[in-house]
């Protein structure tokens, strides 16, 4: 099985709460996490990190999925949001 490239993009404050170690271990079996965790500010400073990303794991503190971010992630297929409503980011 070829694992898709993925990144975590969310507030560091909630990272361990939404994605505790056992959950991250399961995700790592299904996706190749290809960089450090980013937040909504640091991903804007590092849009190049999205070039090969197919899945994003997010939650509170997610970036807005605007044209700039989506253009930087041409291979993006899925955006997983591990928290409440997505109305502020979509």
Mean pLDDT over the full residue set:
93
Tally the helices: what do you get?
4
Rounded to an integer in angstroms, the radius of gyration calculated over CA atoms is 12 Å
Q: Could you give the distance between the termini? A: 30 Å
Side-by-side strand order of the widest sheet: 2-1-3-4
List keywords for this structure.
single chain; 4 helices; 4-stranded parallel β-sheet; 90 residues; alpha/beta
Provide a compact summary of the structure.
With 90 residues, this protein is α/β, with parallel strands linked by helices. It has helices spanning 12-18, 21-30, 40-45, 67-72, and strands at 5-9, 32-33, 55-58, 78-81. Helix content is 32%, strand content 17%.
Explain what the structure shows.
The mean pLDDT is 93. The protein has four helices and four strands. It is 32% helix and 17% strand. It has helices at 12-18, 21-30, 40-45, 67-72; strands at residues 5-9, 32-33, 55-58, 78-81. Strands 2-1-3-4 form a four-stranded parallel sheet, covered by helices on one side. The chain is an alpha/beta fold and 90 residues long. The longest helix has 10 residues, at 21-30. The chain is globular, with a radius of gyration of 12 Å. Helix 4 links the parallel strand 3 and strand 4 (78-81).
Topology:
Blueprint: E1 5-9, H1 12-18, H2 21-30, E2 32-33, H3 40-45, E3 55-58, H4 67-72, E4 78-81
Parallel strand pairs: 1-2, 1-3, 3-4
